Amino acid sequence: MSATFEQVFVHPSQFPDQVYQDYLVSFSGKKINHKFHYDSVKQSQKWLKIHQEYSPSQNDRNCVDTYKKCFQKTAETLDKFSSLQLIGLGSGGGTKDSLLLSYLSNKRRELTYYPLDVSLSLAIISAQKARSSFPELSVQPIVCDLLHSDNLMLQIQKRSEQERRIITFFGMIPNFHPQEIFPILNNFLVEGDLLLLSANLAPGSDYVQGIEKIMAQYNNNLTKDWLTTVLEDVGVNRENGSIKFRIKDDEEKPDLKRVNADFELNNDVTFKLDNQLIEWKSGDKIGLFFSYRYTTAKLQEILSSYGINMLNYWESANQEEGVYLCQKSI
Fold first, then answer.
1. 173 and 199 in contact (C-beta within 8 Å)?
2. Sequence-separated (6 or more) residues with CB below 8 Å from residue 142
3. Maximal C-alpha separation, the chain
4. Counting runs of H as helices and runs of E as strands, what totals does the chain give?
5. Is the C-alpha dihedral spanning 48, 155, 310, 83 positive or negative?
6. Euclidean distance between CA atoms 153 and 133, whole angstroms
7. pLDDT tens across 240-290, in order?
8. For residue 155, how far is the Cα from the chain centroid?
9. E strands, the chain, where?
């Protein structure tokens, strides 16, 4: 059975009743939870196409090199440890985690990989990608909503005090409000754990102009098609409105900005989710998506405020992506 079945653990945050409540809140509150853009196989595949087309880590050789430099430094830092856990938060397609595994894996080391994603499809894709390259690797995919997973690390037990954890968070920071996600990352980390994360950056010396420069990575047909899928599934068609992309200030840190995508209605729309009537009016803005853009200095300031030290960092030559090696302050 083990040869033909994929064993997946599902955290209570992604149990059907909880997911459906989050779904209702998204539509009644006119702010779509990002996890519902990855919910189906169709949506996951659309996202992977966008990632392959527009992500610097997929298309810029120099950007890939920044990850390799980070992974080499990580491997050197952990060289003396014979037991490691790699926990990939928001593992996506698993490409970066698998690359990191190639630096960490050796015959004298016990290594366990936990690809974790809100999407069942992506969690399995990550697990299978890692297993295809490292057949002897212990792999355990997990489906989980990070915003409701305070007890997650209690479920992933360390085998000994000498074992070290590496937590990856690649491509995820932009899609969370900083006041939501950084406390969670801080709670996940204990002394000795390493945190590897990446951030989409605003290139150049002018922060706003840098964000304007990369808007085409969001304002394109592939992204629009992906983002409207969640609306079409409830009967809201593209003819009912249009997606508008804007730069918006963070509500708590106005000097930090994000790209916002809203679906602006040009007519009234009414539909039912079970027994709940959803009524949207012409002119309403439905929050579909957002993506924060950082600079290394801004990210370092925020991490420090949560007790996380940035040990080293690497930026791509075009300054559109940064990779960071971090550790919780002792």
1. yes
2. 8, 9, 10, 11, 114, 115, 116, 117, 123, 152
3. 64
4. 11, 14
5. negative
6. 26
7. 999 999 999 999 999 999 999 999 999 999 999 988 999 999 999 999 999
8. 21
9. 9-10, 83-89, 110-117, 138-139, 142-143, 164-169, 194-200, 241-249, 257-265, 269-273, 276-280, 285-293, 308-315, 321-328
